[in-house]
Design brief:
- By secondary structure, the chain is of the alpha+beta class.
- It is built from 16 helices and 13 strands.
- It has three domains: 227 residues, no CATH class; 118 residues, no CATH class; 53 residues.
- The chain is 40% helix and 16% strand.
- α5 runs antiparallel to α8.
- 37% of the residues are buried.
- The structure holds zinc ion.
- Zinc ion binds next to α14.
């Protein structure tokens, strides 16, 4: 039997001239900020976002559907408020244990060991109250001091973990520890205490059973593709900030995947934010981010950054539920999905065009597929194609297949020459250096700092 898919990718969206201008301006601004020698030729941007541009033809069907949502913000995004259970972060617990170890004296060992035993259970099982396993673990410690009974009494079944730690630290004297340091704040030097009060408050924030409000954004805004790896304290190899202003050690080895995803007809960017701007969330960093692929009555979920492991956290589930709800709503079908997890099903469903996008779903077992359920049981197993084999160079508009570059080789060359000239080289000199670099393939994603070094090398010759 032949069913027509509810996700009809032939549906068009024609932007008004104003809309098209606004998107072009926003993308230009992104390149101005991130690429100091961006020339703004505009040819590539026009091909993508001008009248009949590739962006509108590939994502038009999704934009048309998104407009039906009451949460659509008019900026190619759907913005939904969501309450999430706070996640317990392992590194915060580890840092606290490390801190405690650093201030612990020999006579306090028993207390340290008891707190350590409790926190290891919290870290491994994300528990918030003392349970039998914790009691068992603490009882199994060989306690040396006379306070054995006190420790056992403090760690009793059903108690809140933070209370237990507070009690033990009080008796042991840990809670008197202070560590005053001078730090800069708004250009002024101020004294701050990095001791117990601060450390314990951070731990409590992390392990207390509270809920946080987050905003979930479902987006096809171009800036959100370019900012897939623009996390609030993380980034990935999709990072487009080649100069690493974001201070994390990623050089954007796969940064062109951002444009490849932007140009296909399947990929949407879904992210959460704690601090948001409902009209322009694309301008603020992402708390978590996950790509979803839509098509053939299916929703495919890829890896959630930065958490990575779906089964440890609720975030993947929360994001998936929001996407399912929204997709059901905008395509007017029941919010009723069958979900299958794993690389096998994802490989069966997905097809990648070219080599620019990274096939995460082949290796990451938490990727999953949601099938829209039909009353007659029909399951659409047609493939969804993601990525594009070639991307448009945002400057000159030529197609290229680079992984680590948003721009084509010729434009990278022009950038290098213009940058070297800004360092004082004449045109011939700058071109000679750029030629040599091109021969070494060193122009592939070279950063201005590197060019500066190369330039110095040449001066010394
Ligand atoms: Zn180019």
């Amino acid at each position: 039997m032949n069913y027509a898919t509810i996700m009809d990718k032939s549906v068009c969206y024609t932007p008004t001239a104003r809309e098209s201008e606004a998107v072009k301006k926003s993308v230009h601004r992104f390149f101005d900020t991130n690429f100091p020698h961006y020339i703004r030729k505009g040819t590539g941007i026009e091909k993508m976002f001008g009248e009949g541009g590739t962006f509108w033809t590939s994502k038009g069907w999704i934009i048309s559907a998104m407009e039906k949502s009451p949460y659509y913000n008019g900026n190619y995004q759907i913005v939904v408020e969501k309450t999430l259970k706070r996640e317990i972060k392992d590194d915060v617990i580890c840092e606290f244990i490390h801190y405690l170890g650093s201030i612990c004296e020999e006579w306090q060992d028993d207390y340290y060991n008891a707190i350590w035993a409790v926190l290891v259970e919290v870290k491994n099982r994300k528990v918030k109250y003392v349970d039998d396993q914790i009691v068992g673990r603490v009882n199994s410690i060989e306690l040396k001091s006379v306070n054995k009974e006190y420790i056992k009494k403090a760690v009793h079944f059903g108690r809140k973990i933070t209370k237990v730690i507070n009690d033990l630290a009080g008796v042991a004297g840990f809670s008197c520890h202070s560590d005053i340091r001078e730090v800069e704040q708004d250009g002024r030097k101020v004294k701050k205490d990095f001791g117990w009060n601060r450390q314990f408050a951070e731990l409590c924030d992390n392990i207390s059973p509270t809920e946080v409000k987050e905003t979930v954004v479902i987006s096809v805004h171009p800036r959100d593709y370019l900012g897939i790896a623009d996390g609030d304290n993380w980034t990935t190899c999709y990072c487009t900030d080649k100069r690493n202003k974001s201070r994390y050690s990623y050089s954007g080895g796969n940064c062109n995947a951002t444009l490849s995803y932007m140009s296909d007809s399947s990929t949407i960017v879904v992210y959460s934010q704690i601090k948001t701007d409902k009209k322009h969330p694309e301008l603020l960093p992402k708390h978590r981010c996950c790509l979803f692929y839509l098509g053939e009555d299916k929703i495919v979920q890829s890896r959630v950054y930065p958490d990575c492991r779906d089964h440890n956290f609720e975030s993947a589930k929360t994001l998936r539920e929001v996407v399912q709800m929204v997709v059901a709503d905008i395509f007017d079908i029941p919010n009723y999905w069958g979900n299958i997890k794993g690389t096998d099903i994802c490989e069966k469903i997905l097809e990648i065009d070219g080599n620019i996008v990274y096939p995460d779903h082949k290796y990451f077992n938490d990727c999953n597929v949601s099938f829209a359920r039909r009353i007659d049981g029909y399951k659409n197993e047609n493939k969804i194609c993601i990525g594009t084999a070639k991307t448009i160079c945002p400057e000159c508009g030529e197609l290229h297949t680079r992984n680590a570059n948003l721009f084509c080789d010729d434009c990278e060359y022009d950038f290098a020459v213009s940058y070297l000239m800004s360092l004082g080289w004449n045109k011939d000199g700058a071109e000679a250096i750029a030629d040599a670099l091109e021969e070494d393939c060193a122009l592939d994603g070279i950063m201005t700092e590197e060019l500066e070094e190369v330039s110095d090398d040449y001066k010394d010759r």
